[in-house]
């Protein structure tokens, strides 16, 4: 079993989950999509009509929720308390509310504990915003994956067009920028590059080029570890 622990952080649309899945599979470590965990709590809070300013209720929810990941050939399926929410957590409603929910200290404490627990049992590649700074400060590899906001917005736009969804490129860019600013300026574990993270700017790079680059960083770290 590979015990390597990789922290992959960066802003929205940088390509974290796209590359993380494939690199984790190649390395033989578990892939943990921490954004999906915050999205799962947001989905459940919206379902239960919990006011998103009610920090105590959101914290109780985060402490009682059960989130499971199940690998599927087309990607990772996500379950909340036994209900599949893989698509439900990607709606615009969840996307527009997730930053507010994930800014709540009690929610973060509950999720960080779960994430550390997973990493204590297996090698992992974890993607998120605070993995290298808070969740796994001693990770073997820390990568800050980024790209220009225009490139990131265009990727989301292409992704939606590919699914037949009509959308506005400028609106997508504005939404991404607003969410990044919110995530970077919150009080508890803001999105920030860890001092010792390697920066990979993927503007103008293909998915395969990014995967090759990240895999080579991880393979070198693994060689040093063993
Ligand atoms: O895929 P996308 O970049 O749109 O977002 P995500 O990775 O699914 O994360 C959704 C949201 O969860 C982010 O905008 C953050 O507000 C929050 N998040 C966080 O606070 N900490 C993490 N480790 C991961 C996500
Ligand atoms: O997880 P994160 O929000 O960082 O990004 P994502 O959900 O993986 O979305 C990135 C999108 O950009 C996907 O549609 C990828 O196919 C595309 N893309 C990429 O990830 N990397 C590139 N170098 C080029 C495009």
What is the domain tally?
A: 1
The CATH architecture term is: 3-Layer(aba) Sandwich
> Which kinds of small molecule does this entry bind, naming each only once?
cytidine-5'-diphosphate
Terminal residue distance? 13 Å
**Major sheet:** 5 strands, parallel
CATH class: Alpha Beta
Strands ordered across the widest β-sheet: 2-6-1-7-8
Uncertain stretches of 5 or more adjacent residues: none
Q: Would you report the number of β strands?
A: 8
Radius of gyration: 17 Å
Helix/strand class: alpha/beta
The H-level CATH homologous superfamily, spelled out, is P-loop containing nucleotide triphosphate hydrolases
What would the CATH topology be? Rossmann fold
Number of helices: 9
Strand content: 15-25%
> Average pLDDT across residues?
95
Q: Helix share of residues?
A: 40-55%
Tertiary shape = globular
Family: Belongs to the cytidylate kinase family. Type 1 subfamily.
GO molecular function, one term: ATP binding
InterPro entries: Cytidylate_kin, Cytidylate_kinase_dom, P-loop_NTPase
Keywords: ATP-binding, Cytoplasm, Kinase, Nucleotide-binding, Transferase
């Amino acid at each position: 079993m590979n015990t390597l622990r990789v922290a992959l952080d960066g802003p929205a649309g940088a390509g974290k989950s796209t590359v993380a899945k494939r690199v984790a599979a190649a390395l033989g470590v578990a892939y943990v999509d921490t954004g999906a965990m915050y999205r799962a709590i947001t989905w459940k809070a919206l379902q239960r009509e919990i006011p998103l300013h009610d920090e105590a209720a959101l914290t109780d929810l985060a402490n009682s929720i059960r989130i499971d990941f199940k690998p599927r050939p087309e990607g990772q399926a996500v379950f909340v308390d036994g209900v599949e929410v893989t698509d439900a957590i990607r709606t615009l409603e969840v996307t527009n509310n997730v930053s507010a929910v994930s800014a709540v200290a009690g929610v973060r404490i509950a999720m960080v504990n779960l994430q550390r627990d997973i990493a204590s049992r297996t090698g992992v590649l974890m993607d998120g915003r605070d993995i290298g700074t808070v969740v796994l400060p001693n990770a073997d590899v820390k990568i800050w994956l980024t790209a220009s906001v225009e490139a990131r917005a265009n990727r989301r736009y292409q992704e939606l067009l590919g699914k037949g969804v009509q959308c506005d490129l400028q609106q997508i860019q504005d939404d991404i920028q607003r969410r990044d600013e919110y995530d970077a300026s919150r009080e508890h574990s803001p999105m920030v590059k860890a001092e010792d993270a390697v920066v990979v700017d993927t503007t103008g790079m293909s998915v395969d080029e990014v995967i090759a680059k990240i895999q080579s960083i991880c393979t070198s770290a693994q060689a040093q570890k063993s």
